[in-house]
Amino acid sequence: MTFKTSLLIVSSLCVLAACGPASTGPVTVSASEATTATAVSVQSEPELGHSAEVFFNTTSYGMGASSGYAFSSETGEILISSDETGVINAYALDPESGDKRALTASDTNATYALSWFPEDDRILVTADGGGDELNHIYVREADGALRDLTPGENVKASFMGWSADGSQIWISTNERDPAAFDLYAYDAETYERSLVFENAEALAMSAISPDGRWLALDRPRTSADSDILLADLTSDEAPVLITEHEGNIAYGAYDFTADSSALVYATNEYGEWNQAWTYDLTTGERAPLIEADWDVMYVGYSPSGQYRVSAVNNDGFTDVTVLDTATGETVSLPDSVPAGDLAGVRFNEDETQMAFGVTSSVAPNNIHWVDLQTGTHRQLTEALNPELKPEDLVEAEVVRFDSFDGVTVPGIMYRPHNASADTPVPALVWVHGGPGGQSRAGYSAAIQHLVNNGYAVYAANNRGSSGYGKTFFHMDDRRHGEEDLQDIVAAGDYLRSLDWVRDDAVGVIGGSYGGYITAAALTFHPEAFDVGINIFGVTNWVRTLESIPPWWESFREALYDEMGDPATDAERHRAISPLFHADQIVKPMLVIQGANDPRVLQVESDELVAAARENGAIVEYVLFPDEGHGFRRRENRITASDAYLSFLDEYLAGETPEGDSE
C-alpha cells in the first residue's frame, strides 16, 4: 500500500528511471501513437482460455537505478533485472548480441540491479528478506561473491548515487534511528564509510547534486502541502527551506542539473498540474522549465547534461521527451522502435548510446538499444511468452463515466474479444492501490489472463486518484471509504449498463488500498457486487495506522492529515473498517495475503476471513508464507492468478441465465 503525499508525481521510481526516446532527429512518443500502432497488429483470430502459467511465463525486464551506471565501462554490457528464472536477479545484457549473463543467482529473494561500478565489473544490487521491505545494499564482487554494505537487523537502506569521480558510493540507512535515513559515503575500493548527513528531522531524501555538495530533501506537511529543503553537505548548517509559501502548495524535488547549477523541482502552485521549475543554487532565482496540460512525472539528465529526459502523465499513458539541450531539439526514435510507453532511459558514459524499455497494454516491457550517432536500433529482449500472440491480448482503452453525483470518473477498459450484445460477459471493477495511485494503460499479466478467459476488466480511477489534477486528487481526503467507495460502486453500475456485460455478474477486485475498497464494498454495499477479491487489503484502519513501519516517518504527518490521526480519529477509522462490520458480508470473497507484509499485517486478513466465515459468508483464503506486500516470485503470481480465475468461474461466471443475451 502506498499512501499519497502532497506531491502529485505518479511514482518515485521514475526519475531518470522511467524515461523516453532517442536517436538524432526529433519527436516525442505519445499515447495516441501507442494506441494506434498496436491496434494495427491484430490480424488473426485470438486464442482464448490460456492458463495463468502462459501469461506469467512472460519475462519481466527492468533497468538499474537512475542514479547509477547502466553501461559497463569494461564490456559495454547493460545492467538489467529479470525474473526469467522465476525470481528477480541481476543480469548483464550484451547490446550487440542480446545475450545475457547472470550476475546473481538467488532462488528465494528478489535481487534488483542498481549500478555498475564506474571502472570495473563489480555491481551494486539490493534485496530484502522475503518481502519485508528491509532492503540492504550489496556489492557483487568480480568473483561473484556478495558483500552486504548495510548489515544489521531491522536496517533499511537505499542507493543514492555516485560521487562525480566515481570514488564514493552514496547510501542512506536508518540504522541510527528506524524513523530517519542518514546519508553515508562509502569508499568504492575499501568500502569504509563516513557520515555525510545526519537526518535529525527525518526528512525524505530526494536527490544529491552531481558535485556532491547539495542534498535535496522533501518535507510532506499535509496531503496538499509540502516543502523542499536544501542541505549544503560542505557545511554544518541545518537544511534551508527554499519553498516558503502560504496556503496549500505541493513541492517536490525531481533532480539536479548535470552541472550542479540548479535544482529541478515540481510544483502545482500555478494550476491543477505539476509543472517543472528550476531553482538556481547560486542566485535563488526560479524559472519554469516544463509546463503541460497534465502532470510532469519526472525530469532527469544524461551524464554531461547533453540530454534532458522528461515525462508527462497523459491520461494514463506516458509521453516521454528526450531533449538535446545544446540544440533545443527533441530527439526522435528510429522507426523500428515499436510504439508504446518508454521507461528507464539510460545513457552510456560518453552519451553515444542509449538503452530504454518499451511497453504497452499488449506488449510487456522489452529492453531496446540505440546508437545515437548512427541511429542503429536493436530490440535486445523478447518478454512475451511465445505461446502468446499479440492478437490474444486486448488493447487498453480510456473510458469515462459519470459517478453517482455527476463527477466524471476516468478508467482503463479491457474488453474481451468475444464480448458482444449477443454474448455478454461477466465483468470486474479493478481498484488500484494508494489510496492516491492511478491505474494506467500498460501490460498486466493478471488482467490479460482474466480478460483472455472471458472477464471484462474496468480499472476505475476513483476520485482521489493521481494524474487528473489536484482538485480530483484531494476529493477523498479524510473521506476514504465514502465517495471514493461510491465511485467504485457506480463503476459497477456503469458496467451493468453496457449491453456486452452481464448485469448479473459484476465483481470487484483490488490490491492494497484497492483490497480495502473491495472489502469495504462487500461490507458497506453488500448487494453492489456479486463477488469480491481482496488482495492484501486493509481491514482494520485503527491497527494499520498505529502500526505503520518506522521508516514512513518522513510522511507520517501527511499520512495522518489525509487519513486521520489514530489518536483522535479512531472512531471514524473503526466506522470505515470492514473487520468491525463483517457481519454484513454476504457475497463470496477471496482473500490473498503475504505472511511477511509489513504494511498490511497478516492478522488483518486472518481476522476478516474468520469474521466473515462466522457470518456464514463464502470465503476462500490464500496465504503466501514467502511474500510481503505484493508478489515477487513467479510461482506465487501464477498461484494467485489461478486462484482468481477458479474463484470467479465458480462464483461469478456460472451459466448465463436464459434470455440474458437477448
Structure description:
This protein is of the alpha+beta class. The protein has eleven helices and 36 strands. It is globular, with a radius of gyration of 24 Å.
**Overall 3D geometry?**
globular
Number of strands: 36
Helix/strand structural class: alpha+beta
The separation of the N and C termini measures 42 Å
Main sheet strand line-up: 29-30-32-31-33-34-35-36
The total of helices stands at 11
Mean pLDDT: 90
Instruction: Please indicate the percent range of residues in DSSP E strands (runs of 2 or more).
Output: 25-35%
- Radius of gyration, CA atoms, in whole angstroms: 24 Å
Percent in helix: 10-25%
Tell me the major beta sheet.
8 strands, mixed
Unreliable sequence segments: 1-42, 656-662
Offer a quick outline of the entry:
With 662 residues, the protein is α+β, with helices and mostly antiparallel strands.
Key features?
four-stranded antiparallel beta sheet; alpha+beta; disordered C terminus; 662 residues; eight-stranded mixed beta sheet
